[in-house]
Every structure is written in C-alpha cells, then in structure tokens.
Design a protein that fits this description.
2 domains; two-stranded parallel ribbon
C-alpha cells in the first residue's frame, strides 16, 4: 500500500464517520500532514493517475455532501501527536515498523530471501 493510498483511506474513513454522525451540515475543518490530500481536496492540485486516484475521487464525492468544509495542511514535523496516534492504531492492527538503516536501503522481501521486493505486499513497511 502506498502512503498516498493510506492517506486517502484514512481521509475517507473520517468523512464516512462524519456522514454517519449526520454532520454534513456542520462546517468541518480537516487538518492533515498530507499535502497531496489537502491540496487535491481543498486546493488547486489535480488528481492524477496512480493507485490513490480512485480513492481520491471517492473522497471528493463524499466531501461534496458537506455544506462547508476546508482543509489545513500541517507540516509533518509539527504533527507528531497525530503521527504517534496513527502509528499506535497501525501497530494494534499488526503493522510492524522497521525503519531502514539508510535512506537508500531498498525494500527487501519479507519472505527472508533478502531479495529486493518486486511488488506490493511483499516488502517491509517503513513508516
């Protein structure tokens, strides 16, 4: 799963929760550290092709149900509380965090072979 797919999945979950709570008439403010999500949903960035594109379109459809909404981008280095909470949820779901020793370290197959991953779902998660 790409980080953009994960960001949009989280955004969709929040919008669906607001809809379930019947808050479509309330003004909502979405604060997030994903410049892509905030700028595509509330700014002028276009949705391009990619794994996230169908989710972005779904998010845009959900967002259209709200009478008032705005987004606010928060730089990741100022978003440590939310980052920590989101990682706790992922850990409870069984996602393991294995930071690479160097930024150039390739994603290695999780099957223990030591080979470079050839596709999604076969590499360690670097959060």
């Amino acid at each position: 799963m790409s980080n953009n797919v994960a960001e949009y999945a989280g955004f969709i979950a929040v919008l669906e929760w607001f809809i379930e709570q019947e808050l479509c008439d309330a003004e909502i403010v979405v604060k997030g550290d994903s410049a892509l999500v905030i700028n595509q949903m509330f700014g002028s960035w276009k949705i391009k092709s990619g794994l996230y594109a169908p989710l972005a379109e779904k998010a845009r459809e959900l967002l259209s149900q709200f009478t008032g909404s705005r987004g606010e981008w928060i730089p990741r280095d100022r978003n440590d509380v939310v980052d920590r909470l989101s990682k706790e949820v992922l850990k409870r779901a069984g996602v393991k965090f294995e930071p690479p020793p160097n930024w150039w370290t390739p994603l290695i197959s999780s099957d223990g072979s030591g080979k470079v991953s050839n596709g999604p779902g076969t590499a360690s998660f670097y959060g």
